[in-house]
Amino acid sequence: MKIAIPYEDGQIFQHFGHTARFKLYDVQDGKIVAAQVLDTNGSGHGALAGLLQALNVDALICGGIGGGARMALDAAGIRLYGGVQGSADEAARALAEGRLTFDPDAHCDHHDHGEGHTCGEHACGEHTCGQH
């Protein structure tokens, strides 16, 4: 299995569509056997799902994610584990071991917020952003 996580400073970057890099993990027999950080080269939202598909990613762990990106990941056959915060390495290890806690309904409708909003300011992965 190959896992991707939007990545910044060792943590899960909280908005999938704005991530500058992913950390990719190769998992075999419930253990991480390799990891690497990959720049997205400015790709955004829908293009990121295609990038992950081209890299043969099986699962994405993230915080907040928009509806269009969710549909693109689904079309690419990539399983989504949303609403996750904290250490990227720990989250990948938890998924590999079958113990990751996630929110299947996590999303972030950041386009509905006022100017200056960034999802990381209030941990969008924990709730539906439109419910401030």
Explain this structure:
- With about 130 residues, the chain is of the alpha/beta class.
- Helices cover about 20% and strands about 25% of the residues.
- It is built from 3 helices and 6 strands, in the order E-E-E-E-H-E-H-E-H.
- Strands 1, 2, 3, 4, 5 and 6 form a 6-stranded mixed β-sheet that branches.
Q: What is the topological layout?
A:
Layout: E1 2-8, E2 11-12, E3 21-28, E4 31-39, H1 45-54, E5 59-61, H2 67-75, E6 79-81, H3 88-96
Parallel strand pairs: 1-5, 5-6
Antiparallel strand pairs: 1-2, 1-3, 3-4
Helix pairs in contact: 1-2
Question: What is this entry, summarized?
Answer:
By secondary structure, the chain is α/β, with parallel strands linked by helices. Helix content is 21%, strand content 24%.
